[in-house]
Amino acid sequence: MNYLFPIKLSDIDKIQKTIILFLISIFLVVFLNPQQVISQAVFPEIRGVWLTKNDTDILIDPSQLQNSLRELADLNFNTIYPVIWNAGYVSYPSQVAESVGIPPLVRSDLHNKDVIGDIVREGHQQGLLVIPWFEFGFMTTPSSELAIKNPRWITNRRDGSKIGDSAAGQVVWLNPFHPQVQQFITDLVLEVITKYPVDGIQFDDHTVLPRDFGYDPYTVALYQQETKKNPPENPQDKGWIKWRADKITDFMVRLNKAVKERKPNAIFSVAPNPYYTAYNLFLQDWNRWVNLGIVDELIIQVYRPDLRTFVKELNLPELQSARQKIPTGIAILTGLRNKPIPITLIEEKVRQARRHRLGVAFFYYETLWENAPSETNDLRKAVVRALFFDPQRRNRI
Q1: In the beta sheet, which residues pair with residue 204?
Q2: Percent of the chain at pLDDT exceeding 70
Q3: Where do the H-state alpha helices sit in 285-370?
């Protein structure tokens, strides 16, 4: 009899209590914290990858592009972020760029002359969302036609210096408070979302201004007009930081409105640094942007070299708050040309992101597979395939 019914009668009360406690826990989660459940039910997991200027095979060879996007779809990715604005140049034929003195990029016969169009077309055929990436934001190179032909658009530090260092090398910064700069950026964004059937537009940690900048004549005069005083000598002054951050927020609100008027369902994506760094060092108040409802997708760049500091960033309140409201993910560095990252570390970061109910986007395509001397492409792809074993489709607009 015990073989047919191995549970002792004396254990029935324990089982009943366990079932009751389980049902109570479900009740508490669903009814006392419904947004957490809703956020997981409504938002499919972001599985994205950036296509950068370094991904030259994709950008110049249509057949390579087709094969690469098919493979991404086969590996159950659901989103790609192809670069369209880099170093003062656009990746597509642009009347807006030419109107301010930016010539079309020189192409050889081997170059794909409509790479963005082909990426959108092939990406959609493979079921991928295509969200062009406005990589350089307000940043450009000192030698670009944009900077040379529009010197009044460039801002500076208090000592008058204009050139700064970045991961892309030496750069200058367009003044985000100048109306002509704002109109130029807006026109570029509207041009690309009108020219191509894209699913949205993405801005990252360069749609900002480093806190040392903003002492150009236009900004100084604007600050004097609004506050009746000169800008603080200390660029880290909290009020000065807030004034400039608020101005950038005001612009992003207007930009979002312009995008939505042109394409109401377009995804307005933002990929900033963690909040403390973004706001205090670069005047990017993305937490406020989320609360204002102008961000449709958030991907935080957590490019930490070790797992402990990576996980620490995932618990920050701004990030956990955002994921309750909109699709939210973590940007994971897959390596640089001269600095490969082991697939085991990438895998564990993905697992940690999932434990915190966050999606992922990889920076960037080429280093996701290449430049890892001790690991084969097949090995790295096998790990990704195992991580993304089940499809997670995202609906196109």
Answers
A1: 271
A2: 87
A3: 286-292, 307-314, 317-322, 343-355, 365-369
Q: Is 320 helix (H, G, I), strand (E, B) or coil?
A: helix
* Sheet of 79-82, strand order: 129-130, 79-82, 47-51, 359-363, 328-333, 297-301, 267-271, 200-204, 133-134
**Local confidence band at 384 (pLDDT 50, 70, 90 cut-offs):** very high
DSSP 174: B
Query: 306-345 in b/e burial notation, b at 16+ Cβ within 10 A?
Result: eeeebbebbebebbeebbebbbbbbbbbbbbeeebbebeb
Residue 269: strand pairing partners = 202, 297
| Strand 89-90 with 85-86, pairing | antiparallel
Per DSSP bridges, beta strands 267-271 and 200-204 are parallel
Query: What is the distance between the alpha carbons of residues 345 and 330, in angstroms, rounded to a whole number?
Result: 14
The pTM of the full predicted model, rounded to 2 decimals, is 0.88
Range of weakest confidence among 158-167, 169-178, 260-269: 158-167
Q: Give CA–CA dist 65/114, Å, rounded.
A: 12
Range in 46-55, 95-104, 135-144, 367-376 with the lowest mean pLDDT? 367-376
Residue 130: strand, helix, or coil = strand
Q: Where are the alpha helices (DSSP H) in the chain?
A: 12-27, 34-42, 56-60, 62-74, 95-99, 115-125, 145-149, 179-195, 217-227, 238-262, 275-282, 286-292, 307-314, 317-322, 343-355, 365-369, 377-387
Helix (H, G, I), strand (E, B) or coil at 361: strand
Of 396, 36, 2, the C-alpha closest to 199 is 396
| Top CATH class, 45-387 | alpha beta
In this prediction, residue 56 has a pLDDT band, given cuts at 50, 70 and 90, of confident
Which residue spans within 71-159 are E strands per DSSP? Answer: 79-82, 85-86, 89-90, 129-130, 133-134, 139-140
Identify whether the C-beta of residue 127 lies closer than 8 Å to the C-beta of residue 393: yes
